[in-house]
Structure formats: C-alpha cells, structure tokens
Amino acid sequence: MKSFIFYIFSIILILSASAVITVRNSVTAALFLVLTFVTSAGLWILLEAEFLALTLVMVYVGAVMVLFLFVIMMINITIEPLGKNFAKYFPLGLLVMITMVVEMFLVLGSQSFGLEKFSNPIPHTVNYNNTAELGVVLYTDYVYPFEIAGVILLVAIISAIALTLRQRPKTKYQDVAQQVSVCREDRIRLVRISAAENVP
Question: According to the model, what pLDDT value does residue 164 have?
C-alpha cells in the first residue's frame, strides 16, 4: 500500500511540475505549483519527515505562493509579447533542455541513487518526535551554518528594504504626521449661499 501511494504521489508531482512550465496562464501555473508543493509534502510524510512536510505547506503554500499570486495579479502579465520570439529561441532552449536532462540522468542515475543504494527509513514508535530530533541536530551539529544562514537572510532583507526606499522624483509620498494632525477647519469650508428669488 505504501508503494502504491508513493507512485500515485510521484505521478501527480511530475504532472503538476510539468504543468507549471507548460500552461499559458500565470495564475494557473501558480496553482499547479501549489499542487506540486502539497504533493512533495505528502512524499515527505511517507519518509517520516512530518516537520519538513508541514513547514513546506505552511511556508511555501501559505505564504510564498500567496505572495506570488499577488505579484502576478498586480503586474498583469500579458502572454502575447512573451510568445513573439518563441520560434526564434526554441532551438537554443531545446539544446539547453536536452543538456540538463542528460546531466540529470548522469548524476541521478541508478548507479548513484538506485533503490539498492539506500535502505528504507527505519520505522519509529508512536512517541517519536520528528521536530525534537531535527532541533537537536540543527542546534548542535549544524548551529554555526544555521546562524550564518540567518545572518545572510537578514542582510538580504535589509538590502531589499534599502533598494526599495530610494527616493524617486516623480513619486508622491504621504506625510503621516500631517494626516494625523489635520483638523476640521483645514478640510471643510462652510459657504453661505443666499436663497434664490423669483424662481419660476
């Protein structure tokens, strides 16, 4: 039964990942990417990596993909200009694709990643805590790489904020202090109009 579920999830994963790069609608491609992430999480659960599976669903599906969908809808990607040079660059793209497929078969072949090279995951008891085991390994053996990765991400966040906060001459900015300190007399002007006479 476990092997049957693995093959079903694998087929869905391959089809959804292929649809991400073949469909023409960007929103549909993003939704297929969500299906790819969820199916990958299912495969990780089969490998008894529950924490990584839940993290993949919560972080990528719950946050990153929502951000992708917002960006796709805001920039309003048009398909027609993207497909004009398709025939022009198709031979080069086909060559790159064939090269990548050959490299993947050479690296991920059965001589290195066959089923006989790796044993099945050891089944654990009901009280086994995947999160605790991962935390022990992460904060003992890999604590320095983990801290370095955190510093690199912090620098990336600060750099992104610094790049987006540059002053643009034609951009209109809001002065929050001025908006908060406004009073009624600054926004409303009462005008007394005399009544019209001899209106037919």
Answer: 75
CB 66 within 8 A of CB 73: no
Residue with tokens 């605790």: 132
Q: Indicate the burial class of 180 (C-beta count within 10 angstroms; 0-12, 13-18, 19 or more).
A: exposed
Of residues 78, 39, 32, the one with CA closest to residue 56: 39
| Tens-place pLDDT, residues 153-181 | 999 999 888 887 766 667 677 778 888 88
Predicted confidence (pLDDT) at residue 29 exceeds the cutoff of 80: yes
Nearest by Cα to 45 from 17, 14, 13, 6: 6
| Per-residue pLDDT at 87 exceeds 60 | yes
- Is residue 41 within 8 Å of residue 53, measured between CB atoms? yes
Average pLDDT of span 99-119:
74
Distance CA 134, CA 122 (A): 16
Beta-carbon count within 10 A of 194 CB: 5
Please tell me whether the overall predicted TM-score, pTM, comes out greater than 0.85 for this model.
Answer: no
